[in-house]
Amino acid sequence: MPYIDNARFDVSIIGAGPAGLSAAYILAKNGLKVVVLERGRTPGSKNLYGGRVYAKPLEEIYENLRNEAPIERWVKKERFSIMSRGELFTVEYSSQDSTSFVAYLSKLTNWMAQKAEEAGAVIVTDVRVDKLYLEDGVVKGVVSGDDILKTDVVIDAEGVNRLILERLGLVEKLNPSQVALGLKQVIRLDPVKIEARLGLSPGEGLAWLIIGQPTGFLPGGAFIYTNSSTISIGFVVFLDEACKRATKHVFDILEEFKQTPTIKNIISDGVLVEYGAHLTPEAGLDMSPPKLYSDGLLVVGDAAGLLLNLGYTIRGVDFAAYSGYLAAKTILKAHSEGSYRKENLSLYQKLLEESFIMKELRRHRGISKILKSSEVFTEYPEILISMVGKLFQIQDSSPTLIQALRESIKGKTSLVRILWSMFKMVRAI
Ligand SMILES: Cc1cc2nc3c(=O)[nH]c(=O)nc-3n(C[C@H](O)[C@H](O)[C@H](O)COP(=O)(O)OP(=O)(O)OC[C@H]3O[C@@H](n4cnc5c(N)ncnc54)[C@H](O)[C@@H]3O)c2cc1C
Question: Of 24, 199, 297, 415, whose CB count within 10 A is highest?
Fold first, then answer.
C-alpha cells in the first residue's frame, strides 16, 4: 500500500465506484475522516456500464448535480425495438420532461471522486484490498499485501465480483446464473450526424433497447445511448444462457449487430474509441449477502446485489450511489452513538428497506429468472417481425392481423403459449 498519512481514519471504503464515492462524499462532508482505496489507476478506470443514469436519487446526494455533473445529454427519446433478419419493429416514446441522462461512467465517477476529495476524503488509487482486517471477529480495517490499515468501520463497495466478501465467507463464489455479461463500444461521431441519423433535436439524448438478433437471440438486450459526440453501443446477455446457447463468440455477435443495415448507417464514418466488457449482478436480492451489515462492516452497491434490470431499462448507478448514501447516514449516526457494532449498523438495512431500492427489488423479485426463461428474446422476435412484415409488405391482398399471426407462428408455437409468456412477463415488469 502506498504511504498513507498516519492520521487515523474513521472509515475505509473499498472501491471508488458510484457506491463508494457517494458514501465518501457524505461522510467527509459531515466531518469524518475517510479513505477510499481503489485498485484502478484512477477512479472510474475499472468501471463500465451502458450509458444512462436516473437523476432523482443522485440529486438527493449531490444538490448541484444538474449544473456540475458531466452530463452528456438528457434522455428525451426512448426507443424499444425488436430485430430479426435485419428487419426492425420499433416503439418510441418522447417527452421533454426527462428523468434520466446519458453520461460516461468514468467521467461521472471522476466527478464524484472530485466532490469527495473537495469535502475532505482521501482517495488512494492503485491499491488492491486483499481482505478485511478482523479483531475478535469484528471488522477493524483492511489488508493490502503486508499492510494493515485500521479504521473503525469499513464500507465494502467492491462491485459485482465481491471477492473480499467471498474470502470472508459472507457470500458463495459467483455463479454464472447470477450475473450477465455486458459488452460495450464507444464510437466517435459528429454530433450533427448523431442527431440527423437518430432523429434527435440538437442536444437531445436517446436511450434505445433492441432485442432479438443483436444478441444472437440470447436472452438479454442490446443498447444504444447517445453522448454529445459519441454513441455507446453494446449488449447485456445472461451469462449462463450465453455459455449454454451461444454458437459464436460474443464479440462476433456484437460485430454482426453493427453490420446490420440500420446500425451500419447510423455509425458509418464513426471511429471506435473505447471498448470493454463487465459483469452485472442480475439475481438481485437472490444474490445479496444474507445481511448487508455486520460488526464494523457495511456492504453497498453491486457488491450487495443492488441492481435492477427490467429488460427495457437497467438501474445500477443510482441504486449504488443511493445505497452508499444510506450507508454514510448509518455511519454518521453510529459515530454519534460511539459504536459501530451490528446493533448500530443494522440501521442501514432499515433505511434500505424503507427506500425505493428495496421496494423496487422486492416488487420485481424474480424478474431475471422470467426474462431469462422467456421466449420473448429467443423465439418471438422472429415471429413478430414475420407477422409485421406480412401486414406491411402488401403484394395483392392484405391479411388480417390474426391471419398474419397464425401464419407466422405455424409450426413454431401456439397462440396460448405466446399469451401465457406475455402475461408472465407483463406481470413481472
Ligand atoms: C454493460 C453494462 C451496462 C450497464 N448499464 C447501466 C446503465 O445504463 N445504467 C445504470 O444505472 N447502470 C448500468 N450498469 C450497472 C452499473 O454499472 C453498476 O450497477 C454500478 O457501476 C455499480 O456501482 P458500484 O460502485 O457498486 O460498483 P462499481 O462501479 O463496479 O465499482 C467498484 C469499484 O471497486 C473497485 N474494486 C473492486 N475490488 C477492489 C479491491 N479488492 N480493492 C480496491 N478496489 C476494488 C473496482 O475497481 C471499481 O472501481 C451496467 C453495467 C454493465 C456491466
Answer: 24
With beta carbons less than 8 A apart as the criterion, state whether 429 and 367 touch.
Answer: yes
Distance 301 CA to ligand 1 centre (A): 8
**Cα diameter, the chain:** 83
DSSP structure string for 362-417: HHTTTHHHHHHH-TTTTTHHHHHHHHHHHHHS-SSS---HHHHHHHHHTTT--HHH
What integer pLDDT is reported at residue 46 of this predicted model?
A: 85
Query: Which residue shows C-alpha cell 462524499?
Result: 25
Write out pLDDT tens, residues 135-164.
999 999 999 999 999 999 999 999 999 999
So what's the pLDDT on residue 318?
98
As for ligand 1, residues whose beta carbon falls within 6 Å of it are 14-20, 37-40, 46-53, 128-129, 157-159, 164, 182, 184, 234, 236, 278, 280, 301-303, 307, 314-318, 320
For ligand 1, mutation pick of 54, 104, 317, 352 (most atoms within 8 Å of CB):
317
Does the reported pTM lie above 0.85?
Answer: yes
Could you state, in order of their start, the residue ranges of all structural domains in the chain? 11-47+103-176+283-364, 379-428
Q: Tell me the CA–centroid distance for residue 17 and ligand 1, in Å.
A: 6
Class for the domain spanning 11-47+103-176+283-364:
alpha beta
CA of 159 to the centre of ligand 1 (A): 5
